[in-house]
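Our collaborator T.R. sent over the components below with a one-line note: 'Predict the complex.' Nothing else. No constraints on interfaces, no templates requested, no preferences about which chain binds where. So this is a plain run: every listed entity goes in together, and whatever single assembly comes back becomes the starting point for the next discussion.
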Amino acid sequence: MSTTSDPHVLEHIEHNEHAEHPSTQLYFKIWGALVFLTVLTVSVTYLDMKKFALVTAMIIATTKCGLVASYFMHLRYQARIYSVLLFVALSSFGVFIILTFADMSYRFH
Amino acid sequence: MSDHTAAGTAEAHLHYDPVGNRIGMWLFLLTELILFGTLFIIYAVYFHRYTPDYERAAHELNRLIGGANTLVLLTSSLTMALSIAALQKDKAAQAIRWGFITLGFASIFLVVKGFEWAHKFELGIYFDSEVLLARPKGEIVFYGMYFLMTGLHALHVIIGGSLIVTAMVKIKRGTATSKRMSFLENTGLYWHLVDLIWIYLFPLFYLIHR
Amino acid sequence: MSAAALATPAAINYINAEKGILSWLTTTDHKRIGILYLCSITFFFLFAATLGVLMRLELLSPGMQYMDSETYNRILTLHGMTMIFLFIIPAIPGIFGNFFLPIMIGAEDVSFPKLNLASWYFYMAGGTLALLSVMTGGPDTGWTFYVPYSFKTGANVFYPLLAAFILGWSSILTGLNFLTTVHRMRAKGVTWGKMPLFVWSLYATSWVQVIVTPVVGILLLLVLAERVLGVGIFDPSKGGDPILYQHLFWIYSHPAVYIMVLPAMGVVSEIIPTFARRTIFGYKFIAVSSIAIAAIGSLVWAHHMFTSGMADEARIIFSFLTFFVAVPSAVKIFNWLATLYGGSIALEPPMVLTLAFILIFSVGGLTGLILGALSTNIHLHDTAFVVGHFHYTMFGSGGIMFLAASHYWFPKMFGRMYNRNVAYVSILLFVIGFNVTYMPLMFAGVAGMPRRYADYLPEFETYHAISTTGSWILYAGILLMVGNLGYSVFKGKKTDKENPWGGKTLEWRTPTPPPTLNFDGEPDTSIGPYDYPVEVER
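Returned assembly:
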């Protein structure tokens, strides 16, 4: 973190990153993938997935979010600091939910 | 105030810092994620407690309409990204055009959402209604979370829409250009976040039934 | 501006650069915003302290003498709410963070000056709403707004909930601003390893603010929704779980304790090397322990809920995790003591207050371990012991260090000096009053005195009588201290000494009071924040 967040290093990255923005073509490809995944996640609900229905839906949703964040939100093309920020938030959220369930999962079976 | 050391001009002295603006925006997005995350925790706790009720209630939401609306929002994310890409290449008119298309998709999304809500209201399902209170507890909670979360999400769509309008005005006036991208870029980030949240809301409310 | 033109350039500073009340209310200068916070926070501090004295007065003897229990509940709620949301959380970051963070890293301002001003207006809006709620009777829920009572009570909890929500955003935006500023605005030479420890502590605090405040923000809105719309997610009769509310509330409100404590610890880390004339001992450990406290502090919230009906397994997990927070806190205390060892200690007013902090906070921290242990907690939960404990930790850190920081940075902020003799007297009153007020509460708690009660059995009278007497001494000390500082802002002896205490951080190497852009020319970052030239011989 100490190297990526140094202002001068970031400035340097800032100049470079414009060259690496995704092309219009790539944007459309990502959109195509997102549409496919949406159709997929709706389609699989017509199968009787039992316990795996929720897991499947969550895996697909997470994949979609990954695509939006890395390409539309440019996380892939930018300094690592933004991914680090996102990681801090998501891991905090993960900790909150795990520790809440430390109570809930024992209280409601 | 001609004296350049005066306090009023201190801000003008600060240079334009696109990286700083972006870090600030990402930090703000984190707070939004945690804000919705709290609602997701509540959702998860009651899902764990009332799984059968949740699944029954979810069955009453139309997954095809929800899916179509998801596609609308995903496409608006694409057009938003294209608007930013256009401004980066100094194509202001094109950027504005993509911006308005994004707004169009946002409106479609809200109208569809409005019809869905109106339909539930017609069936007598809303907060504290007799019809809802007569149902099992898990369904009361499910619909409570449904209206709260999609309502808050819709509010974010409206805020995002207003930001897009502001960005378009700025492009028109020439205060948002390829040299000063921050406002449009941050608007885009906000818009994609609205999309990200919906990507989770959709399966959690429409697709969890067996 | 002829006056400005006639004066020499050096005489122009942030105070006289512009005139008129409007220039203050529309300023984007971080130093002026710091002063705005100073005025408003001091007001709310005195307001809430007065409420506290009124509560203690009622508790002087058994039976109800001066108010009914309804009024007592409302005063109790307002005292807690004001002290937490309007005083301790914003005090050190809002005033001294705003004023000195940019200077300490050699920047001209924060990253988002307009947003900074907006934060203050959010703060004022929240404060005004809280005051409005007093006029409409005031809330009677306690500052925790526990459901289901908070959405069933007839008292006005709408304003306070909204107030707390708005104050939350003020806090988030300040944190966001500080984080971006630390990442982007550091002058060349101010590397992560050369940042003053006060900045490190504010950095850690800001992270906590940004990550956990949204939880309570949305939660308070949900209580509002529950009240107005009857949603049902916290209403057990409709399937809701009140204990889930408590979880979410403490996910914010326990880390909020560290939002109060960490900046105070940062101030300690500045004051001790300055007045011991020694390099801080274990710079890296203190910096990292700030981050560690922020991180571990987010994992322990449910120790506030040991008697709430939570699952046994969860209680054991949370009790276990709670002990870990003591480690980085102790690391800091030992490092400060090691810094003092062999130092050439100057017992100036800020230093005396800081030493009082170490003593008082240690009592608070150690009693915290007693409460963190599951078995003793069951006995002491919701007793006056807890009240004593959290006054020792929160007032004993955020409160005392707010006063210490005021004495430390006063000459730099105003270009004047307060009366040192009066300062010593007020500190003596403060420290005696503090211990006489809160120590008996711990004994009363062990004996079984519940907290939040307006009345009590005769057997507790001695404890309460001592405590109430202490509250008068404490209040006198506070009034004298604030009076001394307030008077000196306008009438104190003028000083333009750049470095009255011999500090090494950057704010001591700029004119007094600082110019609008903080430095005349480039800040000199060649000297590190704790580079004291001679190591003292032992």
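Summary for T.R.: Residues 116 and 122 of chain B are 10 Å apart (CA to CA).
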